[in-house]
Amino acid sequence: MPIPEAPRVSKWPFLLGDLLLVGLAGFVIATASWPLSRWEIGAVALCFVTGAWLAVIPFLREHSGAVKLWEQSNLAEAAQQLDRLVTLANQISAATGEWRGIQETATTTNRTAGEITQKMSLEAKAFSDFLQRHDAQEKAALRLEIDKLRRNEGETLQVIVHLQDHIYALFLAGVRTGQSPLVQQLGQFRAACLDTVRRIGLVAHEARPGEEFDSKAHQTPDGKEPAPGSRIDGTIACGYTYQGQAVRRILVALATEPTTATTSLAAVDAAELPGLAATATIPTGLAPQPGEPESPATEEV
User: Does position 300 have pLDDT exceeding 60, yes or no?
Assistant: First the structure.
């Protein structure tokens, strides 16, 4: 802020008074007789001092005015700075109040977010528990349905094996008649039936005459284990595999017995075929187990 200039004091009256006093002192000195008396010396000194004072007064007045103007200017600037400080303090107070409000809002928002997060965690846990229970229920229901399907499949497989045993018995009965047209017709009928059941994975196996008895693939009508090296005379009832898994071993007649395969089959009454089909072992799975070999020493018809 620029400092204004002090008003000028007219100096000529003071200078004129100073000249008059100095002239008066000179007149006293000039007219007095020497040596000067005390009164004359005092008058001369008073004139000089008073003149000097009159000459100095305007300069002192100007200096005093300039000092007062400078002080007033500094006071005004200090007042402006104080006003700025008050404004700044008010702004700081307002900003502090806004900051407190923002902090309170942030605290409330954080608390609300924490509550929402906790609720979401509880909801997610409840939903996960619901999905687990639902999944367990679905698995139990599917397991029950699979058990039913396997049981129905086992029963169906037993029925099909029973029918195949009757068809094979019918074919052997035709062979015993010795009538070629009948044997051919029954052979075609049996082949068609075998081809039909082969489509669902059920395969029939017969033993070749002269083969060595293998307890893993063959069985005797009485269920007893024959002597080692026994030879097979013929097939009484076919063995079956279902989708690569063994269902029943081949029922064979041994060559050491006095009867042939044909007469051995005649000894098996048709009423005993249901019991023979019931000896079939139903596989636990639909697909063949990896690495499981099919029944050895068997021949598919």
Answer: no
Cβ neighbours of 138 (radius 10 Å) = 10
CA dihedral 44, 47, 48, 54 (to 10 degrees): 180
Cis omega before residue 228 (within 30°)?
Answer: no
Domain spans of the chain, in order of start:
7-152, 153-300
Sheet containing 245-248, strands listed edge to edge, beginning at the edge strand earlier in sequence: 245-248, 239-242, 202-206, 299-300
Instruction: Give pLDDT, residue 234.
Output: 87
CA distances from 263 to 50, 171, 236, 269 (A): 179, 14, 9, 11
Q: At residue 45, does pLDDT exceed 90?
A: no
Residue holding tokens 């009164």?
39
**Phi and psi of 149, rounded to 5°?**
-65, -40
Confidence of residue 11 (pLDDT cuts 50, 70, 90): low
Sole residue written with tokens 């006093």: 21
Nearest 5°: phi and psi at 299? -135, 130
Rounded CA gap, 86 and 80, in Å? 10
Rg (CA), the chain: 69
- On whether the CB atoms of residues 249 and 239 are closer than 8 A, the answer is yes
Q: At what angle do helices 38-177 and 12-31 cross, to 10 degrees?
A: 150
What is the pLDDT, as a whole number, of residue 6?
Answer: 55
What number is the average pLDDT over the span 43-70?
A: 74
